[in-house]
Amino acid sequence: MIKFPEGFLWGGAVAANQCEGAWNIDGKGMSVADVAMYKPNVDVKDYVSQWHVSQKNVDEAMKATDDTYYPKRRGIDFYHRYKEDIALFEEMGFKTLRVSIAWTRLFPNGNETEPNEKGIEYYKDLFKTLRKANIEPLVTLSHYEMPLYLVNHYDGWVNREVVDFFVRYAKVCFESFKDEVKYWLTFNEIDSVFRHAFTTIGVLEEKYENKEKAEEAIYQALHHQFVASSIATKLCHEIIPGSQMGCMVTKTLTYPETCNPEDIYLAQKDNRVNSFYTDVQVLGFYPTFIFKEWKRKGFDIKMEKDDLDIIQKYTVDFISFSYYMSMVQSINAEQREKVGGNLTTGVKNPYLHISEWGWQVDPVGLKISLIDLYDRYHKPLWIVENGIGSKDVVEENGTIQDDYRIEYFRNHFKQIALAIDEGVECMGYTSWACIDLVSASTSQMTKRYGFIYVDADDLGNGTYNRFKKKSFDWYKKVIATNGECL
Ligand code: BGP
Hints:
The chain is an alpha/beta fold and 486 residues long. The protein has helices at residues 16-19, 55-63, 71-74, 78-92, 103-106, 117-132, 148-154, 161-177, 197-201, 211-239, 261-283, 288-297, 307-313, 363-377, 403-421, 470-480, and strands at residues 9-13, 96-100, 136-142, 183-187, 244-250, 253-256, 318-322, 326-329, 338-339, 346-347, 353-354, 360-361, 381-385, 426-432, 452-454, 466-468. The protein has an 8-stranded parallel β-barrel with strand order 1-2-3-4-5-7-13-14, surrounded by 4 helices. Strand 9 (338-339) and strand 10 form a beta hairpin. It binds 6-O-phosphono-beta-D-galactopyranose (BGP). The site of 6-O-phosphono-beta-D-galactopyranose (BGP) has 15 residues, from loops. GO terms for molecular function: beta-glucosidase activity.
């Protein structure tokens, strides 16, 4: 029989920039998400390019008052409908909900000294509503967003001053929400700085004279995020006794294509890079290979005297991660069929099914990832994103028969249970996303993840009304039986 530990935190996840909408309401400033443009009719293989934003895109977006082509400005109007949505999550029996705070609701430009009270009021009520519904909030301080002002006037996280701005913002969050929020995360998928530098660290790569200079700037920005994350962890513990801070990474498990040692080495290299981000935040130090790489490339990453001490002293309490797919490395990659869609690309794995967006679905890989992470760090784990994006169809009778989603979750849940059975300490699971919202990488509505359907299309047409999909009742039963019905 499938067994999950008592008190296992079942729930779902969303992010402010993809669900709230209300981008210019109640004093909110513009964020990097508000300039992410939806491009109609883009082929799957080109989605990756939608992550890239140029200064021209930014300038145009700042002038645009119409939100038709900027879906993250609309989200799913969670800003106004959160009570209705939380009631649905409560009905499903959620024990936890992962949300993020939009930095720009509290500090519209990022560099103000005093926060916008309206922003604080909004989140205070959101967290109180969750508490009333017996749902434990898990809050990300920065989920793919930062004030656009800091990009335009400070070059984003490359600038050291941004560390202070973020720390001020984090402190206000801890002080304001200390009675409601115990579990926190600093940066969503901190490893994605190299996949989409604009969204995560506000770096416009075109500003740098060549690829190497851009890479150096990204490492500099990343270092600043590591320091900011450690200072935030320290403050969180000081301000909220009993609180827990987690790091958040994309778990990108890579397999070798064959037992050829060269394939194995290539896969090891990828996995090692993936571990770098957790090593810094969990173990508290930079792995030697990163310093070697900086030296080899002639990078001069500026650090202040206490930076490495701070990183070493204030490490996280738990490790959270997103898990969507696994990858394959091969020395013969050139001759192999590629997959990967909009997240990352690699060699096709003939043993796995591929989602509509080209992601290789691998439930066993989740078990392997849990075991890997637990054996390496011996810290509690929390799966904070996992799910399948698909073009759900509303039947004539109004139902949404998303059996493929049920299948996807069932297979993944069984693997989590197996990992737990092998001794892995797993605190909880929040599916991505528990309600349809705007896709991060494609800025589409049609890439749907939720147990709840939202009636809105890519260009914002629709009633925005919510409908339960077939998976809604299924997940409700999984939670009610703590996984035993699987
Ligand atoms: C993760 C992000 C989420 C989310 C998810 C699915 O990388 O943390 O914000 O959106 O991926 O990706 P997408 O929306 O591009 O399908």
